[in-house]
Automatic annotation (TrEMBL):
It is a single-pass membrane protein. It holds the Pfam family GUB_WAK_bind. One of its GO terms (molecular function) is polysaccharide binding. It is found in: Membrane. It comes from the Eukaryota. InterPro entries: WAK_GUB (IPR025287). Residues 36-99 form the Wall-associated receptor kinase galacturonan-binding domain. The keyword Membrane does not apply. This is Wall-associated receptor kinase galacturonan-binding domain-containing protein.
Length: 202
């Protein structure tokens, strides 16, 4: 659905897609927007176009509120609902923004709080599904419809689960202290659940 415009490494590499009806670019003939095409590029993103604007390299009027990008050490980030995400790709023709979470903690740290977006700006594409991460569990139980792993809490490796099925998440969740719901690509979720992908392969 589109809205109109008005594990070691596990949590750092989960990618999800956001879709948005990008408005048409501002006219390049307009003098006000003549400085909106900077030569500066942030890694592989190419030219930053409307509704996005590159903070520190383009004036605010070059983009739309809520769509400012920051480039530091060659990595572009965007702030969504008070959280920073890594910008992996922008497809202007398909109107898809591909982002991933940023791992600010230790390599095997447990996940961040729930990831949410502002529905007035963007929506998830149909390729995304909600997954539940259960962590700080009392013990590990092998279950065919879950992916078990460990993550670090308070310097201890704690049993944890990745689950897509809500009823199973509730069942296993009774044995865990914390749960996080986060959007992930359906293909990644299924690859983890059928064990054709593990956290070392991400």
């Amino acid at each position: 659905m589109h809205l109109n415009f008005p594990p070691p490494l596990l949590f750092s590499v989960f990618i999800f897609f956001l879709s948005h009806h990008f408005p048409k670019s501002m006219s390049t003939d307009d003098v006000q927007f003549s400085n909106c095409n900077p030569s500066f590029q942030c890694r592989g993103l190419g030219k930053i176009e409307y509704p996005f604007w590159l903070d520190g390299h383009q004036p605010r009027h070059c983009g739309s509120p809520g769509f400012s990008l920051h480039c530091r050490n060659g990595e572009a980030t965007i702030g969504i609902m008070h959280r920073k995400y890594r910008v992996i790709d922008i497809n202007y023709n398909a109107q898809v923004l591909k982002i991933g979470t940023i791992n600010n903690g230790s390599k095997g740290a447990c996940p961040h709080p729930n990831a949410t977006i502002d529905p007035s700006l963007m929506s998830y594409t149909s390729k995304v599904e909600n997954a539940t991460f259960l962590f700080d569990c009392w013990q590990y139980e092998d279950h065919p419809r879950s992916y078990g792993f460990t993550c670090e809490m308070d310097d201890l490796q704690r049993p944890s689960y990745f689950v897509v099925n809500t009823s199973l998440a509730n069942e296993l969740g009774s044995k865990c202290a914390e749960r996080v719901v986060i959007p992930v690509l359906g293909t990644v979720a299924q690859a983890l659940l059928n064990h054709s992908l593990d956290v070392d392969g991400l």
